[in-house]
Amino acid sequence: MPTLNWIGKDKVISHHQNVPYRVLEHKYGFTAKEGEQTEPTHSGNKIIHGDNLEALKSLLPEYEGKIKCIYIDPPYNTGNESWVYNDNVNHPKIKKWLGEVVGKDGEDLTRHDKWLCMMYPRLQLLHKLLAVDGVIFISIDDNEQANLKLLCDEIFGKNNFIAESIVQSNSAKNNAKYISVTHEYMFIYAKNISQVKSNWNVKKSNVDEFVKRTNQLIKSSLTQDEIKKELRQLTKYPRFFDFDHYLYVDKKGPFRASDLTAPNSTKFFDIIHPDTKRPCKTGTRGWGRNEEQILELIKEDKILFGKDESVMPQLKNHLVDNINQTPKSVLFFDTQTTTKWIKANNFKFNFPKPIELIEYVLEIDNNKDSIILDSFAGSGTTAHAVLNLNKQDGGNRKFILVEMEDYANSVTSERVKLVTKGYGKGNKRVEGTDGAFDFYELGLPLFDENHNLNEQVDIEKIREYIWFSETRTQFKETKDKNYFLGKKDGSAYYFIYEKNNLTTLDFDALELVKTKGEQYVIYADNCLLPKEFMAKNNIIFKKIPRDITRF
Fold first, then answer.
1. DSSP for 440-479, written as a single string
2. TM segments (predicted)?
3. Going by fewer Cβ within 10 Å, which terminus of the chain is more open, N or C?
4. Are residues 266 and 412 in the same domain?
């Protein structure tokens, strides 16, 4: 298999293992009903401000192997430094990181080398976070499309490649030097393709907008022929290609007409025209259904008759009954819709992703309880899409957003607040989705430069980390402050640790063990208990900091 090499690869290929684990400092919680609050909401929705490489590392104890769906829209490396969302690898934070990790070699890197150095460890951590049956979707354009394919083949495995979608927008670039490029790409990879369910089924893209346009025609005073003419024009737009046969409407909405006959059928009988009361025209083939079934279809208004009996009747296939399809590799979305929304609500952010694209991705995931991660969160479109879908189908999806820039609070989180509460005035008022989230900043490293526990870190954060590393479950502080962490699956966990003091697991320390378990996992700096005693009483000693799991 072809592999990709670049200057600095040897420095970053295992760098994700050396990224320091930083604690997440809770800044505030937010609920649509109560607004901001100091206490965590425990909603499961998170917005994290900080370097996404370090943030991804901080998510590992709780979320490794649990993220069902990842969508990222990384910098396209266009070289354009004038956008609010910096799309250039010369960002000061990236340059600083490259200098620390790659060293002097970083001075000779091309912008493509820099981009690959930036992406490689982040994709490695995303791979660790992805569930065994999870899928990652990555948006990109021509600047790094070829490099990204080889990068993902190496990290996720070429056999786990699902598809490369073309995402076409409706905005032409008339100032282009040669060709106006109106498309991007979206790579889709599985963690383990054998574990991913097949027969994907999604709502046809742009179907809601098409139905909305059709309903406007139904309410007009146009004749059926005039409506048909309007629909022919409408379906010439790329985003409505899927509906090019839906040229008729009735009270049930748009429909396409199909043949009522069937090859080799011997069912010949008269179908009476409802207006002329005469038998309709028939062909050389018999009807595809028996007479009783045809009469039932007529009763249900499922048969399309011509103006008189000279036209063969056809079957109505309503769009509402055929709204889903297998996802296609070419997608059309209106990029202006979300851009207009951003501007209308006074957010400063260029080129947000179409919310319909993210909703489409989440429909492919098709799990109402998924955790969705976006580590290049931008304006927060992914959270917006999650909240919209939860409102539509009663789902319980959770989002985790990571954003490096300072607008994580002023744009990303403010947009999510607005969506949950509702926005607009009068007849343009949009009801809120409801919901909650917690906002975090990256805090101190858990371990110092000597690989000891960082004594500046709050003890509760350390206890939380130990619990996560042992159980992979949410930590709930216990009333027992004497080193007890909790009990899970019969095991009782104790963390005997004090800042500035060495702790020892001995017979005196065992007096503090109040919660009984089938097994005891006890952390301390030293242990003086006899091995035979520990084996007899199912005690497992773990030395601080040596035996603390590193992610």
1. EEEEEESB-TTSSB-TTS-HHHHHHHHHHHHH-S-----S
2. none
3. N
4. no
Domain identity same for 305 and 337: no
Q: CA-to-CA distance for 191 and 135, rounded, in angstroms?
A: 6
Question: Would you give the end-to-end CA distance of the chain in angstroms?
Answer: 29
CB environment 164-174: b (16+ within 10 A), e (fewer): ebebbbeeeee
Summarised one tens digit per residue, pLDDT across range 437-476 is: 999 999 999 999 999 999 999 999 999 999 999 998 888 8
Task: Enter the pTM of the model.
Answer: 0.86
Tokens of 393: 């189908």
Q: What is the rounded CA–CA span in Å between residue 410 and residue 507?
A: 54
Rounded Cα–Cα distance for residues 239 and 263 (Å): 34
Does residue 436 sit in the same domain as residue 497? no
| Residue ending a domain, choose from 444, 470, 503 | 444
What is the tens place of the pLDDT at every residue in 378-406?
Answer: 999 999 999 999 999 999 999 999 999 99
On whether the CB atoms of residues 331 and 325 are closer than 8 A, the answer is no
Q: Cβ–Cβ contacts within 10 Å for residue 178, how many?
A: 5
Q: What angle do CA 500, 502, 505 make, to 5 degrees?
A: 145
Q: Which two tokens stand for residue 505?
A: 């697991």
Helix, strand, or coil (residue 437) = strand
Element of type H or E holding 507? helix 507-510
* Partners of 163 in the β-ladder: 188
Q: Answer whether residue 330 is part of any domain.
A: yes
pLDDT 10s digits, 198-226? 889 888 888 988 999 998 888 888 888 89
Nearest to 443 by CA among 58, 75, 132, 93: 58
Residue of 132, 151, 165 whose CA lies nearest to 77:
151
Contact 389, 362 (CB under 8 A): yes
Which amino acid is present at 391? K
Say yes or no to pLDDT of 283 above 90: no
Which range of residues forms the domain containing residue 483?
Answer: 457-543
pLDDT at 85: 41
pLDDT confidence of residue 204: 87
Distance CA 459, CA 550 (A): 17
Sequence-ordered alpha helix ranges (H) in 345-477:
355-365, 381-393, 407, 414-421, 459-471
Question: In angstroms, rounded to a whole number, what is the distance separating the alpha carbons of residues 415 and 408?
Answer: 10
H-helix or E-strand containing 211? helix 207-219
| Among candidate residues 325, 349, 364, the one where a domain is terminated | 325
Structural contact between residues 231 and 214, judged by C-beta atoms closer than 8 angstroms: yes
Assign residue 544 a region (left: φ > 0; alpha: ψ between -120 and 50; beta: otherwise).
Answer: beta
Please list, in sequence order, all residues whose beta carbon lies within 8 angstroms of the beta carbon of residue 188, skipping any fewer than 6 positions away. 135, 136, 137, 138, 161, 162, 163, 164, 165
159 in the same domain as 16: yes
Give residue 354's pLDDT.
87
The HSE-up count of residue 160 (CA atoms within 13 Å, CB side) is: 24
